[in-house]
Amino acid sequence: MNTLSRLLFLIGCFLALDCQAQPVMRETLKGQFLTDSIEIGRPFQYALTYRHPTAKDALFPDTARHFAPYRVQKVVVFATQTTGAGASAISRDSAVYTLVSFAVDSVQLLRVPVRVLNEADCTALWTQIDTVFLRSKLPVSQPNQPRAYTMATDMKLAPLQQQFNYGVLAVGLLSITVLAGILYGLFGRPIRRQWRLYQLNQRHLRFLSDFNRLNRNINAYTAADTANQAVVLWKTYLEKLDPQPYTSMTTPEIAERMHDDRIMNALREADRMIYGGTFSEQSQSALRVLSDIATQAYHRRRDDLQVSARQSAKPLAQTDAANSDSFN
After folding, report:
1. In this predicted model, what pLDDT tens digit does every residue of 12-42 receive, in sequence order?
2. How would residue 171 be classed by pLDDT, with cut points 50, 70 and 90?
């Protein structure tokens, strides 16, 4: 192949490459890291400089594509500096990129393109590959070497101070107090009446249990002591039902107070057992009469409580009716 054919072949190959990457001299396009080592998540800088004829225009790399896997945080572009004049004038474009890396590779590389605009197409010029090293604070483990793990045998628990919500406590107590006041105003009297009736009934049941036990155990040998206990118990219970000094009253006085003729005979029979020590067939009957009289007194007292409760409720009902009439 002669010299002319070789020259035509070289020109055809150049046109066919068009925008393919072309190696350039280091002094024409240069890109380099401004530090030798980096840390994960810490920013570092990369400088890019391109010297070219003044008549040519150049496009610096796209920060969204050509800097992967790094992330571009900031770009500082410097003004073009031109030296010389005429066709021999040389311009210098430069920029500094602030990058962040999250890769864990110990050695990381970067190579970016600069595109030179021609009349009909463009030419991509690539920088030389630059290297930066990852500086890690984690201990380096040797490959294929088993790791030894130690289980924690003791752990100290940090006590947390409990915080008491006094505001909620105050609101809760206030709500309970208001609710209790409303319920007491609406249902206080019925509740007190039912409580008094309950106490009255329990007291009567205890009296009957104790009095009947004494009546069952009375005999000729224990007549005096048992009859005395029964009479004292009976008079004490009557004083709880009716606030009168029954324990100091005589038999006629008690009979007159109770308006019951049976009391006279029953108490006389009890006096014969207490003071004479006599025991007959009428002894237990006399004690049963006293028990019946106490039960009648209990029923009268219960009826009095219920009647007083109804009478106290009538003025309230009349007041409500009067208020309703005045409103109408």
Report:
1. 444 444 434 444 333 488 899 999 999 988 9
2. very high
Do residue 74 and residue 197 come from a single domain? Answer: no
> What is the Cα–Cα distance from 121 to 20, expressed in whole angstroms?
11
Q: Which of 62, 34, 30, 67 is nearest to 49 (CA)?
A: 30
Domain boundary among 134, 151, 177: 134
How much is the pLDDT for 11? 42
For β-strands 81-83 and 90-100, DSSP reports them as antiparallel
Nearest to 131 by CA among 29, 40, 38: 38
pLDDT digits (tens, 9 = 90+) for 67-95: 988 999 999 999 888 888 877 788 899 99
Residue 245 and residue 248: Cα distance in Å, rounded? Answer: 6
Query: How far apart are the C-alpha atoms of 76 and 66, rounded to whole Å?
Result: 17
129 falls within a domain? yes
Instruction: Find where tokens 């009469």 sit.
Output: 289
Tell me the mean pLDDT in the region 169-186. Answer: 87
CA separation for the pair 138, 317 (Å, rounded):
87
Give yes or no: residues 198 and 313 share one domain. yes
Residue span of the structural domain in which 274 resides: 185-297+306-317
CB neighbourhood size of 61 (10 A): 21
The number of folded domains in the chain is: 2
Q: Which residue has the tokens 């118990």?
A: 233
pTM: 0.43
Do residue 283 and residue 189 come from a single domain? yes
Residues 128 and 193 in one domain: no
CATH number at residue 31: 2.60.40.740
Cα Rg of the chain, angstroms: 58
178 inside domain = no
